[in-house]
Each structure stands twice: as structure tokens, then as C-alpha cells.
From TrEMBL:
PROSITE patterns: AP_NUCLEASE_F1_4. It comes from Actinacidiphila polyblastidii. The keyword Metal-binding applies. Its cofactor is Mg(2+). Belongs to the DNA repair enzymes AP/ExoA family. CDD domains: Nape_like_AP-endo. The keyword Magnesium applies. Transmembrane segments: none annotated. This is Exodeoxyribonuclease III.
Length: 269
């Protein structure tokens, strides 16, 4: 098995004070993808910068205190790459990928923090520019994996709920960033047949959710009024090996260490 977890930590130093390190010590994952780390490596204490038993790689954002992605892997990677090949975004702390040898093949695992956007502002324009650039990267990544006989997996906070089943209050969010028709259409193009697969949805095709993000406001968590925006998006052959997926939802509001929950998938390669 190759077990991979993705989670937006909403500030890794804050998450560490609430229980993230305990979770990391107990997880059985082989690879952990983190988003919204919000720190330079030299700002992190050793247990976060280089946790015992892990090879850790970080891609902070040039804008201090924003974004930032990391990948932790138990097995040393054969390659590490930062960015998606777009000059505007390669220092934005939004994408980092590694190549991991597993079962005689190379598995590329990427940690993605796609911009959240905000309707009617430059932030939404930035999101669309990133989406355009990242789609080109996804195409090249899939083609390279196919040519080399390997696999590719992009985990992270995609900041788009694809279908009505992916958020509780879809009717009231049809004009909200993250559920706009054009965003959903873009994700549909990513998930075209014979391209990429939304692994958790493929394993749970007829269910609502399972949600991975709940606002800290109101009773969203207690009422399970969430969004499913933290995705495992895999090339077809890898997606077919997915044996089980789970959202590691905290047992209660006060035991959360992020507003997102870890999404873990075991791949039987």
C-alpha cells in the first residue's frame, strides 16, 4: 500500500499548538501533503521543519505569512520540483511535487493550494490565471507519467466544489467563489474521461460529501455544513488502485487543529 494524506493546516505553527504534531506522530501515511503552511522553513521549529522519520520539503510563498505548501515523505524522493512552470506563480507557495519510487514505478505526488478567489476582485482574476497555468501543467504531468510508465497524484486544497453533492448549502453558494459555474466547468475539464480522476468521489459516487472543510463561524462543523474541496486527483491507472478513502474528521469542534480535515487514501499498488 501507498497511503497518502492531504490537509490544509491553516497555519502549521498554529496547528502544532492544537494537536497537529500528535496527529503526525500517529499517522500511518507514507506521504503527507500540507497546504497553507504560512511560514518560511527557518521560522519553523525543528519538529515542524524536519520531523523525525520524514523527509520534509517546503515551498513557502514570497508574500510573508501567506500560502505555502509542504510535502513530507517517509521514503527519500528521487526528485523535487517547486511550482507549475508559470513565472507568476512559481514563488507563490502554491505547488510542490516529488517523485517517489514505489512498487517498481515512479509516483509523482503534488501538494496544491489553488487560490480561493473572491468574486468581483483581482483575487478572482488571479485564480483564473492560475487555473489556466495549472491545467497546462496537469496535461504535461499526465503525459510524462504515461510515457514513463509511472503514476501521478495531485493532492491538496483545490478550492472548488465540483458538484452539488460537494457542499451542504449549494443553492445559496451558486454565485460564490469556489462554486461558480466557470470554476466547476474548469474542474470538469480536468476530470475528463481518460484524463484525471477524483479518487474520493470515485470511491463514494452516490454520497453527499464527505466534506473536508467547515467554517469556524457559527455551527458549521456541528451541523456538518461543509465543503468537499480537499481532493486526491490521480491518473487513471493509479486511481483504479485506490482501496479506501477516509476524511479524518475531528470527533468534536474543540479537538480540531485546522478548519480542514485530513483526507487519506490508500493505494494498493
Amino acid at each position: 500500500m501507498l497511503t497518502v494524506t492531504t490537509v490544509n493546516v491553516n497555519g502549521v505553527r498554529a496547528a502544532a499548538k492544537k494537536g497537529f504534531l500528535g496527529w503526525l506522530e500517529s499517522t500511518s501515511a507514507d506521504v503527507v501533503c500540507l497546504q497553507e503552511v504560512r511560514a518560511e522553513p527557518d521560522q519553523l521549529p525543528a519538529p515542524l521543519r524536519d520531523p523525525d522519520g520524514w523527509h520534509a520539503y517546503h515551498a513557502p510563498a514570497a508574500a510573508k505569512g501567506r500560502a505555502g505548501v509542504s510535502v513530507l515523505t517517509r521514503r527519500a524522493p528521487t526528485a523535487v520540483r517547486v511550482g507549475c512552470g508559470a513565472a507568476e506563480f512559481d514563488a507563490s507557495g502554491r505547488y510542490l511535487e516529488i517523485d517517489v519510487p514505489h512498487a517498481g514505478a515512479t509516483v509523482t505526488v503534488g501538494s496544491l493550494y489553488l487560490p480561493s478567489g473572491e468574486v468581483g476582485t483581482p483575487r478572482q482574476d488571479e485564480k483564473h490565471r492560475f487555473m489556466d497555468a495549472f491545467l497546462a501543467h496537469l496535461t504535461a504531468l499526465r503525459e510524462r507519467a504515461a510515457q514513463d510508465g509511472g503514476h501521478a497524484l495531485v493532492c491538496g486544497d483545490w478550492n472548488i466544489a465540483h458538484q452539488e453533492a460537494d457542499l451542504k448549502n449549494w443553492r445559496s453558494n451558486q454565485k460564490s467563489a469556489g462554486f461558480l459555474p466557470e470554476e466547476r466547468a474548469w474542474l470538469t475539464s480536468v476530470l475528463a474521461p481518460d484524463a484525471w480522476t477524483d479518487v474520493v468521489r470515485a470511491l463514494h459516487p452516490d454520497t453527499t460529501g464527505p466534506y473536508s472543510w467547515w467554517s469556524y463561524r457559527g455551527k458549521a462543523f456541528d451541523n456538518d455544513s461543509g465543503w468537499r474541496i480537499d481532493l486526491h486527483v490521480a491518473t487513471g491507472a493509479l486511481a483504479k488502485t485506490a482501496a479506501r478513502a477516509v476524511v479524518e474528521r475531528a470527533p468534536s469542534y474543540d479537538r480540531r487543529w485546522s478548519d480542514h480535515a485530513p483526507v487519506t487514501v490508500a493505494y494498493d499498488l
